[in-house]
Amino acid sequence: MRRLPVAAAIMVAADVAGVYSMAAHVAWGWHLLGLALVFAVLAWWVRRELPLAGLGTIVLITTAVQLTGLLTFPLTSDDIYRYVWDGRVQLAGIDPYRYPPLDPALSWLRDPTLFPPGQRPLINRPAVPTIYPPGAQAYFAIMGLLTPAGWTQTALRVAAGAAVVGTTIVLARSLGPQRGRALIYGANPLVMIETTNGGHLDALVALAVAGLAWCAVRRRHWLAGVCLGLAASLKLVPLLLFPIFLRRGRWRTSLTAFGITIGGYLPHLVVVGSLVLGYLPGYLSEEGYGGSGRFALLAWLPVQLRTPVALALALLLAVIAFLRSAREPVLRTCVWLYGTSFLIATPVYPWYALPLLVLAVLARRWEWIAVWAAAYVAFVFDHSVAAQAAAYGAAAVVVVIITALRRGPSSSRKVQSGGVPADLTV
Fold first, then answer.
1. Where are the domains of the chain?
2. CA gap 13, 309 in Å, rounded
3. Mean pLDDT throughout 330-357?
């Protein structure tokens, strides 16, 4: 294993240079894509050594990469400031869905850290209520309670990095003899930017999805439901996976997940009623999911048809996923449904796709990483529907071609040793 330590050192050095360079430049999108290119080249260079990496080495490299994210302020998003604010509001005994940050009722909670005098607040969308689900709100409040004043933001970023390390361990344990490939997630600079640097909730969602996969493969249906419920209570996106767990034998997973998700909303519903939806409806409209600014691969349709067509496709995908779940390994169905849903929605926020990257690694369906990568191109070119369509279109072509090649006459199912469940080896 001569190349792996060298590659890890180069990656850490590139990450340090990259985060400082991004912090110093307003137009940092190309720096982000440059880090991705360095990682891709290094991953190819050490591809033969990766399977030989031990768990300790994997954890060490993951931790080193994650620590580089703490060197600068959050670079690609200001979401973490809302996290801190929502936690502060709850600790003051106020339901986070009741008032937006700029409401006069909350003026006594504002401080110069989040509301610099004479400047716009650091909190994004300060004139609207929060969008985050109850599980996320509980997380914000707990982190605010456990950390000293002024340190909550750092604690959230450290927690996100720790979640990446935990997820990488789950991946490594799941992949067995191929455990080194867990570094596709753990040593990835783009993952670091979204987690330890940005502190995004999606790091915890990805960990919960990894737990879901681990439990589902081993038919621990109740525990799988707990993991799916936790993931959905942090971010609603994992609800995409519900159709896969509706069949006989898996109903306990969906029932448990549904109970956790709905149960989290009930206390807030009692206190604030319909305000419990927060800014979710407004967010969907603002982001163009009424048809005007999203669904890049459907941009050729008239505006008024895009949303209905997207919803029809989503329903069709759910039905197909339900049918496929009867005969296909669960992880394959999960990565397929998650990935195709992203091809329909074509979001420009790449941190939403962290669970997709985890599922792609677990299922060893590497072609779906192209969809995750497309989200970054869409993010960098967030004002160009044409660029977003090109990125997601290219990803769709990659998925189709590799899937077709895999189903060719030379591709037969292989049984591997090492005590790894079959669902994780194909």
1. 1-200
2. 46
3. 95
